[in-house]
Amino acid sequence: MHEYLDRFKKALKDLYIRPNDILYIASDISLFLYYTNKNLGVRTVEQRNIFLNNLIDILQKAVGNKGTLLFPIFTWRFCKGEKFDYKNTKGETGTFSNWILENRPDFIRTKHPIYSFMVWGNDAVYLRNLNNKDSWSDDSPFAYLHQKNAKLLLLNVSLQRSFTFMHYVEEKIRVPYRYMKEFVGSYVDESGLEEQRKYSMYVRDLQIESHEYLPETFLTDKEVSVQIKFEKMNMRSIELAKAYKLIEDDLLNKGGENCYKFHNYKINWMNGATHHDQISD
Predict the structure, then answer these.
(1) Burial profile 93-119: b = 16 or more Cβ within 10 angstroms, e = fewer
(2) Which of 3, 82, 163, 214 is deepest in the core (most CB within 10 A)?
(3) What is the pTM of this model?
(4) Which domains does the chain have, with CATH numbers?
(5) Nearest 5 degrees, angle CA 23-CA 102-CA 108?
(6) Phi, psi dihedrals of residue 81, rounded to the nearest 5°
(7) 173, 178, 163: which is closest to 240 by C-alpha?
(8) 104-159: pLDDT as tens digits
């Protein structure tokens, strides 16, 4: 296992992960676990926990005490009227973040009931104290990632499955095919207090038929992104502030050709909102 972990350390260096970096880590850990099960004999729960703890420790050492790690633990159950429990509600974005929630007390969770993160490092307390009601607003973790020029680190997961940051860009430029929608539900806070809370999201107009495109060839400029292979798995780092500009340009000037495949719609900035509930500034 030690040789494998040493190769993982080298892979992070090849992706230009450096001390003081802010890393938003999106992952599909299943292939890592399959590889270690098949080739390294990592089969029991205890062995798996040791392996995952080592991966986290390596990431922490890569960015150092002045760096920050963010793992998405997003869940959309609150939008469907289900209770959100700050300490116990699991995410729907993969197993790694849920494992961190249950096994790494050095991480803390941000507060938003839909788009929360497990965070560690220099800015962890700042992030935990954010009280954004809107999912992608200027006081959200996504704005922090933009303003701090964070890096998105993809561990064997495609851009299409992991690029929630794009929705932050969409809200910033007020794309006409989304509108602000409020959600009200039960929220159990860190102390166990339950109350009704209201949160919002700049949601997609469902009358518009589309699917996210985001081909792997998008954002491949060497100044924006670095890609490598690690044990037959894909790893990629993306500088989010630079990616923001490319996404913004694609949506404003190219009809979003890299962001979406629209089936019954073309972006029309002149006509504005497509939904009667859209809230303008």
Answers:
(1) bbebbbbbbeebeebbbbbbbbbbbbb
(2) 163
(3) 0.94
(4) 2-164+222-248 (3.40.50)
(5) 45
(6) 90, 5
(7) 163
(8) 999 999 999 999 999 999 999 999 999 999 999 999 999 999 999 999 999 999 99
